């Protein structure tokens, strides 16, 4: 295990974390403000990836892919919200889970119908296809760009939520929706705004993930479940929790998968290590989540509700 | 008995060094303007809130740090200001649940609960005590507001409590319904110790042996009904303000 | 179980039909249907188990498929190592099932509401990945099971006997569940769903009862998993996918969460819809038949959404009069 490998894997972990953050941020706001269990978020991420891939393969321009993909995802998200989901805001969580579950099945099948069951490919944009030099270590430029974009978005979100008037309204609604409504905040508009923001972030995540992950039916759900782990660990409704939670999950998962089998081989006999290594590595983040919950059931950075 | 209870909510002092003593068998009423901290006090007595300082002694034991369910099992019954019953069940089932809570553990998986006299008879007795004997098998969903308040009290009684904490039992009731509750509480006097939080002054003066007046979390006077009515501080702080019933 | 209400009649009818299926399939000479109905009963059993905490306890577990997996993998792994005794299969499955349920339940029940849903989903996913990583037991491809569990007095290799074994297990579970729901334990559980805060203020430490209910409900799914492995002679991580957990919830809600037989009816409905759609041959124009056969998940997804938006009590629950509480 070299320092170079360590650095590479750490960066990979940060890159995964940043992608997870883009998805978690939008979702945690929806959970926290609208008290709505939205499982279709994974589908929006998937649609974002598909829209971007289709646009990219048609135009050969990453920029066009972004300009088409992200707004398309936002529009789709808002349509789904208006048509199907808004009637569920007042229903109990079970109904929300079921309805969004049905939508997941629907979207996965639609994607299969339009684009076929196998993965479609999206190439890394040529300007970013090389490697950059980090302390003498070559690291894929594209992944580094993802990290960069993700951190910029995180900063922008922070400024939006904590330093702008809209952000204040969002935080007030997260803390006490009824009161915010009574004070004259247009809750419907705010909900649409939050939902749209989440959809946009999901679309961005889909766009960026396209070249490095397979764009295929059902790609949304494994990421969605990771996102849920992030949100639960970080605290529902908390952007800060989403940020730190996402980084933690991303780094622990990546490093765990990379190094745990090797580590185990140092300590245990080969056959045990070979069997247990990948198994435990895949369970690591869930064990992390369980530990956090055992100590702090509301997550690391819980939002105080009024 | 409560000693020197203090409770902060951020910058707000909700309970300000409150000391209170309830004699066995008496009805001790707590009154005060809105926001005086009455409900906070009830929550601290029942265990839903932990005080920041001070002690609560019940039957000689310090229950300050005890969780809610243990206090209930020790003999502290409670009714809620906003009716909190089991809406999907019948009246009888509601009270059976209350009886069951005090009848040992419920890890019994086979015999039908409603077929066990040990559970049903005390439940029927409690319902009779509050005047709901004829409605025993009525679904709560079909019951009137006043009847549900009666059910609340039946559930609190079913546990054979030593102390009853009643949080605005008269809330939202018509004069006719209130009179029924007042009559009921009068029959309980002497058999149970009752701490009563209420806004309905007629009821309070009719029932209470002693009254404590709470303003901004502090007790400003404690005494019998006539003493309180005569107390000038109380008059200005509370009675002088006009409206006495919701 | 007293008056001849429409629901009671429907219940008797369903159970009677299930008992007669082997006879009917023998008559029409289509043993294939025996497998379909056996599968319906197994998932009905699993949905029934889930509903103990979902409908009666108010706990929305999105991870119950993992217990199906535990039951199935117990059979698969033990058979792989040469242990074919059904009793050993059962004992090991339940031992693991109880341990996992206690551990997972203790963590999950520290939360409630949407956090509970998400955490149960996360843990099920964890077990899914665990199963996938067990390369020596087939990993992603799964493991085929050469012989059925040997319970000594009944030969599960005979399709009809296997069918009736499943039927008897289902009946026994229904009977046990009925007693459970009406017992003291059941009252506490239902009370916790109705108003947990009140339950606690009455003197009941709610958590231990909810955990016990969770463990019991999980074991029913473990048994269903054991039966499933025996039916299909196959076991794979796919039994633990999150979609399966979702389908179990759909079955319970579709059939009616407020009743014991509802989930079984829901399982029948959902699985039959899937069967019908995936083998559709009505002779519709423009290749609609083929389209639906290939892509039946899309209309199914929409169907689920529609059911949620319209039917609040479920197909079977609709037969119940609008009364409170007891089955």
Please provide a written account of the structure.
The complex is a heterotrimer of chains A (306), B (246) and C (327). Chain A has 306 residues and is mostly helical. In chain A, 75% of the residues lie in helices and 3% in strands. In chain A, strand 1 and strand 2 form a beta hairpin. In chain A, helix 1 (3-34) packs parallel to helix 5 and helix 2 packs across helix 9 (220-234). The longest helix of chain A is centred in the first third of the chain and has 32 residues, at 3-34. The model of chain A has no long low-confidence stretch (mean pLDDT 87). Chain B is of the alpha/beta class and 246 residues long. In chain B, 36% of the residues lie in helices and 23% in strands. Chain B has a 6-stranded mixed β-sheet with strand order 6-7-8-3-9-10, with helices on both faces. In chain B, strands 2-1-4-5 form a 4-stranded antiparallel β-sheet, covered by helices on one side. In chain B, helix 4 packs across helix 5. Chain B starts with a strand and ends in a 9-residue tail after the last helix. Mean pLDDT of chain B is 79; it is low at 242-246. With 327 residues, chain C is mainly alpha-helical. Chain C contains 12 helices and 2 strands. The relative contact order of chain C is 0.17. Classes of the chains: A mainly alpha (306), B alpha/beta (246), C mainly alpha (327). The A-C interface holds A 31, 35, 37, 84, 87-88, 93-95, 97-99, 101-110, 112-113, 221-222, 225, 228-229, 231-232, 236, 275, 278-279, 282-283, 286, 289-290, 293-294, 297-298 and C 54, 60, 62, 107, 110-111, 113-115, 117-119, 121-123, 125-126, 129-130, 132-136, 242-243, 246, 249-250, 253, 295, 297-298, 300-305, 307-309.
């Amino acid at each position: 295990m070299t320092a170079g490998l360590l650095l590479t894997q750490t960066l990979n972990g940060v890159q995964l974390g940043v992608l997870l953050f883009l998805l978690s941020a939008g979702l945690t706001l929806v959970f926290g403000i609208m008290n709505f269990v939205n499982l279709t978020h994974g589908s929006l991420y998937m649609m974002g990836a598909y829209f971007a891939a289709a646009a990219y393969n048609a135009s050969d321009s990453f920029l066009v892919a972004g300009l088409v993909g992200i707004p398309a995802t936002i529009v789709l998200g808002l349509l789904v919200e208006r048509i199907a989901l808004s009637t569920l805001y007042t229903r109990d969580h079970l109904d929300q889970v079921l309805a969004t579950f049905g939508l997941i099945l629907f979207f996965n099948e639609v994607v299969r119908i339009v684009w076929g069951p196998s993965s479609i490919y999206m190439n890394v944009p040529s300007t970013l296809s090389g490697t950059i030099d980090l302390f003498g270590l070559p690291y894929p430029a594209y992944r580094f760009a993802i990290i960069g974009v993700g951190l910029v978005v995180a900063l922008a979100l922070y400024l939006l939520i904590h330093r702008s008037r809209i952000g204040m309204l969002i935080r007030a609604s997260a803390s006490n929706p009824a009161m915010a409504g009574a004070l004259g905040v247009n809750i419907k508009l705010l909900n649409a705004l939050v939902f749209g923001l989440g959809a946009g972030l999901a679309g961005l995540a889909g766009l960026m993930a396209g070249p490095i992950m397979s764009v295929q039916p059902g790609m949304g759900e494994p990421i969605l479940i990771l996102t849920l782990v992030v949100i639960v660990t970080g605290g529902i409704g908390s952007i800060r929790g989403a940020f730190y939670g996402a980084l933690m999950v991303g780094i622990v998962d990546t490093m765990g998968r990379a190094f745990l089998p090797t580590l185990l081989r140092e300590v245990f006999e080969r056959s045990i290590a070979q069997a247990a290594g990948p198994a435990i590595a895949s369970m690591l983040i869930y064990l992390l989540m369980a530990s956090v919950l055992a100590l702090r059931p509301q997550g690391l950075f819980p939002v105080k509700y009024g | 008995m409560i000693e020197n209870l203090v409770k902060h909510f951020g910058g707000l002092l909700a309970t300000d060094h409150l000391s209170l003593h309830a004699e066995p068998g008496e009805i001790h009423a707590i009154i005060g303007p809105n926001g005086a901290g009455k409900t906070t006090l009830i929550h601290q007595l029942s265990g839903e809130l932990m005080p920041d300082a001070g002690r609560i002694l019940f039957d000689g034991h310090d229950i300050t740090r005890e969780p809610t369910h243990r206090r209930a099992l020790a003999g502290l019954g409670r009714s809620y200001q906003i009716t909190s019953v089991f809406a999907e069940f019948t009246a009888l089932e509601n009270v059976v649940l209350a009886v069951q809570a005090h009848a040992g553990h419920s890890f019994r998986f086979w015999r039908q609960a409603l077929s066990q006299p040990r559970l049903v008879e005390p439940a029927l007795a409690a319902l009779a005590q509050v005047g709901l004997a004829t409605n025993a098998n009525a679904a709560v969903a079909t019951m009137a507001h006043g009847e549900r308040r009666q059910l609340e009290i039946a559930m609190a009684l079913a546990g054979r409590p030593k102390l009853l904490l009643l949080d605005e039992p008269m809330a939202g009731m018509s004069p006719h319904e209130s009179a029924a509750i007042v009559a009921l509480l009068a029959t309980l006097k002497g058999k149970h110790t009752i701490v009563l939080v209420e806004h309905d002054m007629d009821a309070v003066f009719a029932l209470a042996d002693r009254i404590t007046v709470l303003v901004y979390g502090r007790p400003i006077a404690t005494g019998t009904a006539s003493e309180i009515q005569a107390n000038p501080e109380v008059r200005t702080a509370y009675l002088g303000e006009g409206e006495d019933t919701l | 179980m007293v008056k001849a209400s429409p629901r009671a009649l429907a219940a008797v009818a369903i159970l009677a039909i299930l008992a007669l299926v082997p006879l009917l399939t023998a008559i029409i000479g289509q043993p294939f249907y025996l497998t379909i109905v056996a599968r319906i009963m197994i998932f009905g059993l699993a949905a029934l188990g889930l509903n103990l905490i979902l409908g009666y306890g108010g706990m929305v577990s999105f991870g119950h498929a993992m217990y199906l997996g535990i039951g199935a993998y117990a059979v698969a792994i033990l058979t792989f190592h040469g242990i074919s005794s059904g009793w050993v299969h059962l004992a090991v499955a339940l031992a693991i099932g109880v341990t996992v349920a206690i551990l997972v339940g203790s963590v999950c029940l520290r939360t409630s509401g949407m956090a509970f849903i998400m955490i149960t989903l996360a843990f099920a996913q964890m077990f899914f990945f665990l199963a996938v990583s067990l390369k020596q037991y087939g990993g992603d491809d799964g493991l085929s099971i050469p012989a059925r569990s040997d319970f000594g007095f009944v030969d599960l290799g005979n399709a009809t006997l296997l069918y009736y074994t499943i039927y008897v297990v289902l009946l026994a579970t229904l009977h046990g569940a009925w007693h459970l729901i009406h017992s003291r334990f059941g009252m506490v559980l239902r009370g916790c769903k109705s108003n947990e805060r009140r339950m606690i203020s009455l003197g009941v430490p709610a958590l231990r009862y909810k955990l016990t209910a969770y463990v019991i409900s999980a074991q029913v799914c473990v048994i269903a998993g054991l039966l499933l492995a025996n039916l299909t002679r196959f076991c794979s991580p796919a039994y633990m996918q999150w979609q399966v957990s979702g389908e179990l919830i759909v079955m319970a809600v579709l059939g009616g969460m407020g009743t014991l037989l509802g989930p079984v009816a829901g399982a029948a409905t959902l699985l039959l819809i899937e069967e019908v759609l995936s083998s559709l041959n009505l002779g519709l124009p423009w290749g609609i038949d083929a389209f639906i056969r290939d892509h039946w998940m899309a209309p199914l997804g929409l169907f689920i959404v529609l059911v949620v938006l319209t039917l609040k009590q479920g197909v079977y629950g609709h037969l119940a009069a609008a009364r409170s509480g007891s089955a």
